[in-house]
Description:
By secondary structure, the chain is mainly α. The protein has 7 helices and no strands. It is elongated, with a radius of gyration of 21 Å.
Amino acid sequence: MAALPEPIHAHAIDNLRYIRDAMSRATEFTAVPGWGGVAMGVTAIVAAASAGAPDGSRRWLAIWLAEAGVAAAIALITMTIKARRIGAPLSSAAPAHRFALAYVPPLAAGVVLTAAFAALGQTPRLPGCWLLLYGTAAATGGAFSVRVVPLMGIGFMALGAIAFATPVAWGPWLMAAGFGGLHIIFGLVIARRYGG
Length: 196
């Protein structure tokens, strides 16, 4: 006696899981906050004007470390708001996890290198380090995000390379151009094209 074919519903749940997983893997991380980027750019320009040229002083380093904290807070708050608004949960979404896994390591390297540069008396060279590593974070994390984020990362990386190849006195201008200008420009693009 011939075996009866398996009913379609027997594999339906497996097929639905496969489709859901495939869609989750293919989805971009779209909660990158455009308006948050603009706000981060504005605070960076204020920090650049306040800090002046990287002179190796604790004051200069403290201003920029405080700015990093302010920028991180702006990014997290505005990312959370945008994620809720567009219905893209940050805690359970595969695209958010992939973005974070690619974005965080270069920033962690920046923390370690900041301490090393400061200990070696190379604080005036931190603009190149920070621009280069932040750009790397944006480029690698951006691979799982909207199309313009990796382009922004490349812009930061270019400014970081320029910072290492130019006099230390150019540091505040390059920091303002990157953390200020690039954040504002790309933030406006993201806000306009990708929903805030």
